Amino acid sequence: MSSTSEPLLSVTVYGLPAPQGSKRHVGEGRMVESSIHVAPWREAVVWVMRQKIARTRGWSPLTGPLDAAMVFSFVRPKSHYGTGRNADVLKSSAPSRPAVMPDLSKLARSTEDAITTAGGYKDDALLVGYRRLEKWYTTDYGRVPDVLASQGAVIHLYRAEGLPAGGETR
To answer: Which pTM was predicted?
Structure first.
C-alpha cells in the first residue's frame, strides 16, 4: 500500500491544541469538557477549515475511506531552558518530544470532530488510518516536516488506499 498520494485537503491551524474526551459532571445530568481550551481549539480548526473549503471550487464534504495526518506543535516549557545568560539554552535534561499531557488520541479526537463540524468530511468515522499522528516542540521547526514555529497543527486528509481486489493481508 502506497502513501505517496497528494492530500485532498491540507490546513495549518494556529493556537493551543486541546484534547477532547474528559468530561466532568456539573449537576442536573449536565456534563462539560474538563479542558477550557477545547472550545477555542475546535473553533480555530473549524474557522481555518471553512476558509480553505470556501476557496476550493465545487467542494463537498469528503466521503469514503480516508487517512489523516496531524502534527501538533507545542511551545517548550521555560523549565526546559537554563536561567540568566543561559535562558535561551536548552538543558541537556530537556526531553526531545512532548511525552506529557495532553494525550495524543484526545488531541486527534477534538480535531477530528472540528473537521466534521467544518464540513471537511461527512463524519470522522470515515477515518480508517493515520499516516502521521505526532506531537513535537516548536523548537523542531525547520528540522521536522509539518512542525510549526508556533503552537498549532498541520492537518492533511487523504483518500485511503486499500488492497487491490483479491489482495491478502499479512
So the answer is: 0.87
